[in-house]
Amino acid sequence: MNAWLLLSVMTTQMFTTPLSVEQMQGKQAVFETSRGEFIIEFLPEKAPNHVGYFMKLIEEGAYDGTAFHRLIKYGIVQGGDPKTKDPAATAAYGTGGLGVLARELSDEKHSRGAVSAVQIPGQPDSAGSQFFIVVTDQATLDGQYTVFARVVEGINLIQKISATPTDDKGLPTERLELTRVTLRDTPPPEIPPFSTETVEELASYRAILMTSFGEITVEFFPEKAPNHVRNFLRLAQIGAYEGVAFHRIVPGFVIQTGFLETRHLPASERVMKYVENLEPEFNDTLHIPGIVSMAHGDEPNSANSSFFIVTGIASSLDNNYTVFGRVVNGMQVVKAIEAVPTDGDTPLARVDLSSVRIEKIQN
What we know:
The protein is of the alpha+beta class. It folds into 2 domains: 21-185, Cyclophilin (Beta Barrel); 199-360, Cyclophilin, CATH 2.40.100. The chain is built from 7 helices and 20 strands. The protein has helices at residues 21-24, 48-59, 155-162, 199-202, 226-237, 269-273, 331-338, and strands at residues 27-33, 36-42, 66-68, 70-72, 76-79, 114-117, 131-134, 147-153, 176-185, 205-211, 214-220, 244-245, 248-250, 254-257, 291-294, 307-310, 323-329, 342-343, 346-347, 352-360. The strands form 3 sheets. It has a 9-stranded antiparallel beta sheet with strand order 3-9-1-2-8-6-7-5-4, with helices on one face. It has a 9-stranded antiparallel beta sheet with strand order 12-20-10-11-17-15-16-14-13. Strands 18-19 form a two-stranded antiparallel ribbon.
């Protein structure tokens, strides 16, 4: 750890924030980077001076145009050095902005997403503008460095940044710039999509599945399985199904998709927040061709995102899996997918479900 937290010349004046904990609560910082956006939320009750100093620097634009200057793959990313604003000054990266904050240790752990203060090796009261973000749990840092914030959106982006190639000193071989950092109030909790609609309103929605072979249109049975319909519409609207594959094909039985592990890109934190197991809503609808039903594991209450379309008479599934919809257009596409060659149940060629579009029909 100490090898990549480089030495700096210390100043003598320790910073004390003029803001109260109450004034700093409910605040986030939005980082716009050359790779995308991530958001942190401050913990002023744990480290008030660190939070106050960080907020002061953001308001001054101190982080705009800086860059991540040290990476440990799948471990830690480090930034915040004002000297990184100069792309030509790489030899000095890691030596600026330190020596103005005394440690504020707490019970906050260096677990995935923790934002902690860089300090000079052997000098605990030496933090400043530099910070590091923990990609995977780093328990050995607990009780040594000050955690003052947590990533609340974009930890997958941080993980990808950590895997950027580096030189032998941990300096990225490409510039990873923090183009702009801004403060904002923490938004109110999101109302889960499709949580307030009535059963009648849910029945007015259709889902158009965009596949490698064309479109499949599905209508829903909220009067039979309201929670499953809400779950599917919610996941579809927030993009959970973008880039998944049809991972199981059994001719004369089912084609199955929606398993998030088959996505081209990992699901976002927002998506994963809404992936939860569902209690079964078994009903009297038979598993006949065109029926859409929810997959589950050994336990009936283990369904979450994966679903299947029935292509034959599948009586063995009746009252064992939750039917929640039916194909109303595109059975020829279903049949085309069913005809893809397989090795056992696994398609030999990838069949994509690129996206799901939700539309509301007018009565």
